[in-house]
Design brief:
Blueprint (H helix, E strand, L loop, with lengths): L1 E12 L2 E12 L3 E5 L6 H8 L7 E6 L2 E3 L3 H6 L1 E4 L11 H11 L5 H11 L15 H13 L5 E5 L7 H16 L3 E6 L2 H7 L2 E6 L2 E6 L1 H8 L3 E6 L2 H13 L3 E5 L2 E5 L14 E4 L2 H9 L5
Parallel strand pairs: 3-8, 3-9, 6-7, 7-8
Antiparallel strand pairs: 1-2, 1-4, 4-5, 9-10, 11-13, 11-14, 12-13
Helix pairs in contact: 3-4, 3-5, 5-6, 8-10
Length: 296
């Protein structure tokens, strides 16, 4: 059974259609990355799943519960980690966790708090005030708070946005631990590497709907090929290579001072200049090929 099922979901805010006929299925036990730029509808989708927003039309089912009629039942069995830090700064780290454990009616609150602190590696900071924590520690505490009741489903909304690379790697390790425990995870992100590293499957989202989904490697092979070339040269030289690549039926785009040729392994001999840089194709190449838009 799928942990999450959305069919034809629409949500508008005045003239803005934030979610536009969204179809999405998240099988139990996997991490699905909802990948797209800011404004694609990812956060609105998360709010629909948690009952913070009501769809204008369409069908939503979470852990077997129809939404919004049974949002309360579904929410009791899911853990939610919001994009924005909403920790209570007036109490300690330990008390933040204990309050949520009580809200979720956890039988053994002390044990649940100890487990969450260990998961987030915050055991030595349990008595500290939240405003004494670093940004990375606060993000780990947010995740621990969402997991204090051992939910069957975890929603992570841009879990590492605004964090530096070192702290981001710490959060990735924490999320990988959740995957190893068999949790079902829906993670929204606009970071390519995050989706490629953490997600079993990826749903590419643009303009309020999913435009492609599958395993990262499969999506890259289908839409972008194995290799992508970046050619840095004066405009006239780039233009000549671009004309040749387009004539050969290759995907081509400009990226600042570079010409990008997707699926370059299919290029005729001599088309790719020797000084061009070759790299593995990525999900960003897939997204741009399908939408014409950059992810960041």
């Amino acid at each position: 059974m799928a942990a999450i099922e959305l069919e034809g979901v629409v949500k508008t805010f005045g003239p803005i259609r934030a979610v536009d006929g969204l179809d999405l299925s998240v099988p139990a036990g996997i991490c699905l990355g909802l990948l797209g730029p800011n404004g694609a509808g990812k956060s609105t989708t998360m709010r629909l799943l948690t009952g913070q927003a009501i769809a204008d039309r369409g069908r939503l089912r979470v852990l077997g519960y129809e939404l919004p009629a049974r949002s309360k039942d579904a929410r009791a069995r899911m853990g939610v980690v919001p994009q924005l830090d909403n920790l209570d700064i007036d109490v300690t780290v330990e008390e933040n966790l204990a309050v949520f454990a009580r809200l979720y009616r956890v039988p053994d609150i002390a044990a649940a708090v100890d487990r969450a602190l260990a998961l987030a590696r915050l055991g030595d900071r349990r008595g500290d005030a939240v405003d004494e924590l670093s940004g990375g520690m606060r993000r780990r505490l947010l995740i621990a708070r969402g997991l204090v009741h051992r939910p069957r489903l975890v929603l992570l909304d841009e879990p590492t946005v605004g964090l530096d690379p070192q702290i981001r790697a710490e959060i990735w390790t924490l999320i990988e631990g959740l995957r190893a425990e068999g949790a079902t995870i829906l993670m929204s992100t606009h970071y390519i590497e995050e989706a490629e590293r953490l997600a079993d499957r990826v749903a590419l989202m643009a303009r309020g709907k999913v435009i492609a989904s599958g395993r990262p490697g499969e999506l890259i092979a289908e839409h972008a090929g194995r290799r992508t070339v970046e050619y840095y040269a004066p405009p006239q030289a780039r233009a000549a290579v671009r004309r040749a690549a387009e004539a050969a039926g290759l995907g081509v785009r400009s990226a600042g001072p570079a010409l990008v040729i997707v699926g370059s392994e299919r290029a005729p001999a001599g088309l790719v200049p020797e000084e061009a840089i070759t790299r593995p194709s990525s999900l960003e190449d897939v997204f741009v090929e399908l939408t014409g838009e950059e992810l960041e």
